[in-house]
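Cross-posting from the chemistry board since nobody answered there.

I work mostly on the small-molecule side, so proteins are not my area. We synthesized magnesium ion and want a rough idea of how it might sit in this target. Sequence and SMILES are below. Is it possible to get a predicted 3D structure of the two together?
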Amino acid sequence: MADILIVDDEPSIREFLEVLLTKHGHQARSAESLAETRAALATSVPDLVITDFRLGRESGLDVVREVRALSLPPEVIVVTAYGTPASAVEAMRQGAYDYVTKPFDNDELLLLVERAIEKRSLRAENRRLRTTALTSGVFVGQSPAMQQVWAIVQKVAPTRATVLITGESGTGKEVVARAIHLESPRAAHPFLPVNCGALAEGVLESELFGHVKGAFTGATSDRQGILVAAGEGTVLLDEVGELPLGTQVKLLRVLQERKVKPVGSSREVPFNARIVAATNRNLEAEVRAGRFREDLLFRLNVITIEVPPLRHRREDIAELAGFFLERIAIELSRPRLSLSPEAIEALRGYTFPGNVRQMQNIIERAATLSDSDELALSTLPPLVLGTPVPLEAEPDLSLPNGFSLERHLDTIERQYLHEALRRSGGAKTKAAELLGLSFRSFRYRLAKHGLPPE
Ligand SMILES: Nc1ncnc2c1ncn2[C@@H]1O[C@H](COP(=O)(O)OP(=O)(O)OP(=O)(O)O)[C@@H](O)[C@H]1O
Ligand SMILES: [Mg+2]
């Protein structure tokens, strides 16, 4: 059921449309002038507006213009007089969804109404997803590993404990950081990520701690640092493993005293923000290598959350694929997009070295390339098809009596050769490509295993 506003200066038409639309399950209200339209929009924004092009001395174009200027604008259908194509064109140019000419056919109008409503609900959904998935943190993942991450998120969220989030690139560290923020009492305050790896030392320090006017060339006014600017919110020190050693010393003091000294100032300013840090480096190893201060590590990793790589939680692959597919479907206005069973199978078997981010790219690429709504295996990058891996999360590394690595690798090699040939339908050039081998090397291996050259 949609909320539809009818704008027409002719009472009989208003009444007719109200009855017609109500009979088809919608909620209809009407306005007879621009002023009444404004009043109706102020009460609540409808899903759809149907307006006459001529409203006495006023113009339906003004209705279109005003309605379309709303922040989540309703669709507009314009009713024009027969033989006035120019007005229809103008209405569309102002953002109308479509038009019907008088006298119109009821079925034609109803069909248009359904389409317009569908478009609007897709747009609203798109927006909702954008704001929840991108700016907040939809957290997809029913696997036990991710449920465990979620459980820790909820446990630490209400506290002020510093959390260190580790994990390979693209696993969702920032998503987890946002989730901590959103599940915390700080949710209504800002969440501010700072990429510690992307900024030069001086810039990074003034970004974090702020600076006073004249602190360095170009510092033409005082500037608040992010730690203070976040107020009661959360600051994510992203890529914290990249912090220069000099900044590490300063940050440690700042975290201990919960006060910052803006660059060039001698005054300390207290701050209340919660600190969350993320890194894809192994900070213990960085400490051993002398690149990261152990005392800072101890400050940061009061609680550590490790986000597992996607290949260790294959149960999440199909769900994540579905999530990204739904998102791109809305963006491309192709609501019927789906993945073929073979494509899902191939994704399930892939290792995703780039983790969730790579999955997102693969799905978006496939959706963009595919002409048909069902995304076939061929829309996936060759990479995905070319590296069949056993479905277990990790290879079986037991070493039974009489184990021979030589023989074991031989067996695996043979299996890969077979699989590549099967996938390429026997075409050797293609099979070699799937395995990342030159044709010569592939032929040599076939011969070594006594596999038929034909
Ligand atoms: N569990 C999840 N649910 C939904 N989307 C996710 C999830 N995990 C990751 N993503 C999406 O995958 C992309 C990468 O996630 P994110 O930026 O959090 O990774 P990261 O670990 O911070 O990567 P990097 O180390 O490269 O900074 C983002 O677009 C994010 O929205
Ligand atoms: Mg990140």
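Reply from a structural biologist on the board:
Welcome over. Reading the output above for you: The chain has four domains: 3-132, 158-307, 311-386, 405-448. Residues 138-141, 167, 169-175, 280, 356-357, 360 surround adenosine-5'-triphosphate (ligand 1) (CB under 6 Å). Happy to explain the token format if needed.
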